[in-house]
Amino acid sequence: MRLDKKGSMFIFIATILLIFVILPIAYVASNAKVLQFDQKLGEKPATLLKTYEKGEVILYYIDESARHSLINSLYELAYSGGRATGCGSYEGYTMWNSPDRNCYPVFIHTLAIADVKNRLQQRITAFPQENIQMPDYDMVLSTGGRTELIGKTDQKIRMEISAGSRLGLDTVDKDECAGRCGGPCGDCPDGKDCVSGRCVDPGQPGQPSEGKCGYVVDYAKQYLRCPYSWWIVAILNPQNCANPGLTCATFVQSVFHFTNNERPRGNGNALCSHSVFTYRFKELSELRPGDVFSGSWGLYGHTGMYVGRGYVQDKYWWSCHLKYVPDPKGDYVFIHSVGNAVNSGGVCYTTHKEMFKEYGGFYGLIDFCRHKNCV
Amino acid sequence: MNKKSQVVTMYDIAAWFILFVGVTIWILILRFESVDYSLHMRNDIQALDKDEVFISMLRTKIGEDHVSDLLLSSYTREKPEEFRDKLDNYLKSAYGAEVCWRLIINKKPFINPVCRTDSKRNLLDSTIYMPYEEGAPYSINLVIAGYKK
């Protein structure tokens, strides 16, 4: 079909309009819609992954910082013979005694932890890519089996999910409901039972203990795995038992302090002689949950609390077990804090057969005794 | 063909020419923008896991020791050959064939074997900071240039 001049002009002008007016307007209109969004398709997931990777790099740096801090600290402490504790030093080496006193480095764990914290702080501050503020760690040094340092904190290192990924340190509220139940904490997750305000596996330790002082035993069970301290004496609740840990006597004293407001005093071998215990006996068959024993060993003896009859499982050190399975026909099971100067041990379960010499165990039985509120 | 019809043909040709050139220019504009963005995203994603891969290598145990500890031992004693052989074997098993790699510590080449590769793009290029001492941490840069030719 042949167009006349006017028809051809129209096509020509329409083409010009399409190329130089309509398409630019369409492009601008299209871009205006795209510009409404902060990020293009795929940018956000990529940023998220980048932030995650950066977090991994920082966590690895913190992990390695802690590891090398511990290695350096233990090496330095061993090399210099501990830290000065009053007897001075000789050519850089700590003196362990002087003519009139002994200054043995008995606080080696505490000293190492303080030193590790200091070294860790220096390392974390030196991280070149970001300004990391070191969280306030509660540290526990365990030298049982293999040397390991456990650091816990209720602070979180927060990373902003952005291209810059700025770091911040948030102090978050302690999760009061972690592992707890009832009241504002509600029910337990994952089908666990709520026993004495704590979530426990069905049929496992934590089921309410029977007897007048079953609640004392339930409280004592909350100390399970708390570290042993052979020297530092402190009354601690289960949440703060990690540092410095509990002796056998301070474990029993702490349990009664927080459950009865009236605690016995004395070393393990003398604990049953205290006036809060009004009934003393020696027969296993008389034991009720919450009863205490005094045992003989060395200068200070040993003590612990009767939990109930049953079996023990998950042995982790010496005759220490982490699991107690109730069974009315089982052994007599006790909970106690046990360890020594070189092995941090901790609070665990032990049967009467492993505990008392009279039944093939380690400690001589002096007495079983019952708190006056449990009689 | 008279003069009038020649004029009409010129308009036709000009219109088609402008349409063709205009559309081509727009296609190129839009295509360049799209290709540029795709390339940017692809580079971003390809670079994503490089640090994680390197951290995994450093955490790996060769015998009794972590790779990171072997590296420190080799570096402080200035014996790169010990670490070179161990890492070479490890990378060979990890990548399934021999690779060309170099290790740069604190921005100075520590191990830089002679090696030829056809690869135009590094298989890995990651820098991790290691807190071996209290002062400034060591910067460890591992570059895996490609498979050995």
Topology:
The complex is a heterodimer of chains A (375) and B (149).
Chain A (H helix, E strand, L loop, with lengths): L4 H30 L8 H38 L8 E2 L2 E2 L2 E2 L2 E2 L5 H18 L12 E5 L5 E5 L2 E5 L7 E5 L21 E3 L2 E3 L13 H8 L26 H13 L16 E5 L10 E5 L5 E16 L2 E7 L4 E8 L7 E6 H4 L8 E8 L4
Antiparallel strand pairs in A: 1-2, 3-4, 5-6, 7-8, 9-10, 11-17, 12-13, 12-17, 13-14, 13-15, 15-16
Helix pairs in contact in A: 2-3, 4-5
Chain B lengths: L2 H44 L3 H10 L1 E2 L2 E2 H10 L3 H16 L3 E7 L2 E4 L12 E7 L7 E10 L2
Antiparallel strand pairs in B: 1-2, 3-4, 3-6, 5-6
Helix pairs in contact in B: 3-4
Précis, in short:
The complex is a heterodimer of chains A (375) and B (149). Chain A has helices at 5-34, 43-80, 108-125, 214-221, 248-260, 352-355; strands at 89-90, 93-94, 97-98, 101-102, 138-142, 148-152, 155-159, 167-171, 193-195, 198-200, 277-281, 292-296, 302-317, 320-326, 331-338, 346-351, 364-371. Chain A is an alpha+beta fold and 375 residues long.
- Mean pLDDT of chain A, rounded to whole units? 78
Relative helix content of chain A: 25-40%
Shape of chain A: elongated
Distance linking N and C termini of chain B: 69 Å
Unreliable runs of chain A: none
Number of helices of chain B: 4
- What are the segments of chain B in which pLDDT stays under 50 over at least 5 consecutive residues? none
Number of strands of chain B: 6
Strand order of the largest sheet of chain B: 4-3-6-5
Output the helix-strand order of chain B.
Answer: HHEEHHEEEE
Number of helices of chain A: 6
Strand content of chain B: 15-25%
Radius of gyration of chain B: 28 Å
Per DSSP E runs of 2 or more residues, the count of β-strands of chain A stands at 17
